[in-house]
Design goal:
CATH topology of the largest domain: Phosphoribosyl-aminoimidazole Synthetase, Chain A, domain 2
CATH superfamily of the largest domain: PurM-like C-terminal domain
Strand content: 25-35%
Oligomer: single chain
Structural class: alpha+beta
Number of strands: 13
Radius of gyration: 19 Å
Shape: globular
Number of domains: 2
């Protein structure tokens, strides 16, 4: 499962060579970096780049929705660390033809998403070229009193929870999702999550990132996974099962987190965060094996499937 090729292979190669620095207690490999600017409260830093033709089709999505998504994917990373966003920097490479009007519409989308979570655009950079639209957002955030909720904090026996539902995001939710900042804020206020990640690549792939970082395995109950209506709609078109879509489609931007069994029981009783349903889907294991558990109790290997940018 530790593929050395493609996007994640490159990330592992970089992380292995990154070293440490006293001002960067949390370096490459998580949803955000954590740096020390003053005192012992970590400042969260993250960035994400969207490319026309790879991450979106401009003619189909429109600049307003692309601007919104570009801000929201970074806000989702801050949520995954249990943090609070502070401000954003935006860099865009606009096509020469029609770049002005496109830039204005992008800005409206960025502002709409940022204003919803009190995240101003503090600056950035603009350029033009003969290629398609490229937009990169960098976000600054503050960690909570618990500190950044990292991927490597899980322990064997902890319960695995998710917000919302999964699969079929390509039908529209990949552009129009709401980052789970309110849910994360309630979670860190009332509980003590041990590990957390947002689902951008796929539920099975992103939960595996927690397993890998924590040197653990997991058992996921098939009947517990909340499958979206979009996943069922898409399954009727593709011939794949709704469960397969829920496990591997990606860009759901929901949260996956772990709690101790005592806190997990409290979460099961609450069943929601900030009005969003929360579901227990399995538990972490001391073994590094990754399994699905069917309704009859049988186990089968779970392959971490999701999107990865191809490269050679």
């Amino acid at each position: 499962m530790n593929d050395t090729t493609g996007e994640f292979g490159l990330i592992r190669w970089i992380v292995a060579r990154s070293g440490t620095h006293p001002r960067v207690p949390l370096g490459p490999g998580d949803d955000t970096a954590g740096v020390l600017l003053r005192g012992d409260r970590q400042t969260l830093l993250t960035t994400d780049m969207l490319l026309e033709g790879s991450c979106f089709l401009l003619a189909e999505a429109g600049a307003l929705r692309i601007g919104r998504k570009a801000m929201n994917v970074n806000l989702s990373d801050i949520a995954a660390m249990g943090g609070t966003p502070v401000c954003a920097l935006v860099s865009v490479a606009l096509p020469r033809d029609g770049g002005r009007a496109l830039g204005e519409e992008l800005y409206r989308g960025l502002r709409e998403a940022g204003d919803r979570f009190d995240t101003p655009i503090a600056g950035g950079d603009t350029n033009t070229w003969d290629g398609g639209l490229t937009i990169s957002v960098a976000l600054v955030g503050e960690s909570s009193d618990l500190g950044p909720i990292r991927r490597d904090g899980a322990s064997a026996g902890e319960w695995i929870f998710v917000t919302g539902s999964f699969g079929g995001s390509i039908l529209g939710r990949h552009l129009d999702f709401t980052p789970r900042l309110a849910e994360a804020a309630e979670l860190v206020r009332d509980f003590h999550p041990r590990s957390m990640i947002d689902v951008s690549d796929g539920l099975s792939a992103d939960l595996w990132h927690i397993c890998e970082a924590s040197a653990l395995g997991a058992i996921v109950d098939t009947d517990a996974i909340p499958i979206s209506d979009d996943a069922r709609t898409l399954a009727a078109r593709t011939g794949r099962t709704p469960l397969d879509h829920a496990l591997s489609d990606g860009e759901d931007f929901e949260l996956v987190f772990t709690l101790t069994p005592d806190e997990g029981r409290r979460m099961v009783e609450r069943a929601s965060l900030a009005g969003t349903p929360v579901t227990k889907i399995g538990e972490m294991t001391a073994s590094t094996r990754y399994h699905l558990r069917r309704a009859d109790g049988t186990l089968e290997v779970l392959e971490p499937k999701g999107y990865s940018h191809p490269m050679s």
